[in-house]
Amino acid sequence: MKEYKDEFDMYFSEQIKKISDDIVSPDKKRIWLKIKKELSVSKKVKKQVWVKMVLAAAAVLLVFFTGFVAGMGNSAFAGHGFFKTIKSFFGNVVNISGITQTGKDILQGQEEINAVREKTYRSPDEVQKMLDYEIVLPAYIPDGYRLFGVFIRDESSRMSSIELKYEASNDDRYFTIEETPVTRPTAFSYNFRKNDTDVKTVYLNGIEATLIWFKNNDTRQLLWHTPAMFYSISGPLAEEEIINIGSSIR
Amino acid sequence: MDMQGKIVRGDGILENSDLFEMLYDKYFDKIYKSTYMITLNDSITEDAVQEAFISAFNNFDKLRDIKKFHAWVAVIASNKAIDMIRKNSRIYPSDQLDSLHQKYSLEDPLDLILDKENKLKIINALNKLNLSYRQVVILRYYYDLPFKDIGEVLGISAAAVKSRFHRAKNTLKKLLESQKSQEGREVI
Q1: Domain-located, residue A29
Q2: Ranges of each domain in chain B
Q3: Domain B1-94 class?
Q4: Higher pLDDT residue, A245 or A170?
Q5: How far from B177 is each of B18, B141, B165, CA to CA, in Å?
Q6: Among A13, A64, B12, B33, which one is least packed by beta carbons within 10 Å?
Q7: Does A24 touch chain B (CB under 8 A)?
Q8: How far is the alpha carbon of B29 from chain A, nearest alpha carbon, in Å?
Q9: How far is A207 from chain B (nearest CA, A)?
């Protein structure tokens, strides 16, 4: 709502703006160099903190998951990107863990809540207006699939993660692409029975990605990240198809 | 170019500093000037604005609307400046106020002289306001910011900002009135 301004407000506002014209700013290039220098120092400190965090998280996860060696199935069909993947093998169990910067909305507990919540799919343009980052659609989609819609996980956040859902025209198969901007740090970890899954490293335009094949239901998941975003593709896709989709997201 | 699509967080800041540099380049002068009108001191303003941009870059994910970037940084800068002034009371007020006085006292055609006199009165009145009043006055009058937006960044309610602003405005009115009546006495 427009706030009321009286004559004094308008007079004073005008005078203040006139005064500002007489103020001479210092050389902004010189100050920008100082800012850059400060930022580069804080970045170095941050990097050291990250290394410590990754190592600490890895140590915690190792201790934590040794207690789960026999019990975990392939239910962890995770829709998350990662900052740094740590693959560990404990007998029959494969553990994939990582450090993300994506905050509370991608924590596993939240994921379970999302699973029971009815999803509303909107058009990419509509969702784009609700976000402060750019949604990227894949340039390649396998034949027979079409975009069903975009689901925004947290409508109150302009940095919310989103899910693109692609449906097959002829049957009820679908695959999803999750896009999550990097925000706050957190850790995740998933366990799969070695007999049930096959995990390998692949490259998308030179970027390292993790490809998981869930043998039981013949679905795959591809996880990778850029400096700004985490991506995850999940669905009943052939290896070549899922890699081609991932490679076309730029 | 879609600016919002290029925003990169966290460790990506320096590698993707183009956007920030662009925002800095666009808004530095305005933010410097608004902060200066609160501090009336060059060195404090420069330090506060520099720190405000660094802080803004590091907290960029907290900014919901990029259109409010300059106002957001301006509030951060004004807060930092006020902190600095409170911690370093000996270096305040500044001699810079004199330079503005000097600037406005140069001889000019009559209309310009009147204009400068007006500015001088405003500067003098602002200088007599306490810092928190001066802050809301500048944020409100220079940036035309709604009370809600000022409150969000200052961490106080819109009602509290409104109340502070009205107290500041009434004080300003009285100060300007008293300057006017003093002039009247001088003429007599």
Answers
A1: no
A2: 1-94
A3: mainly alpha
A4: A245
A5: 48, 19, 18
A6: A64
A7: no
A8: 6
A9: 16
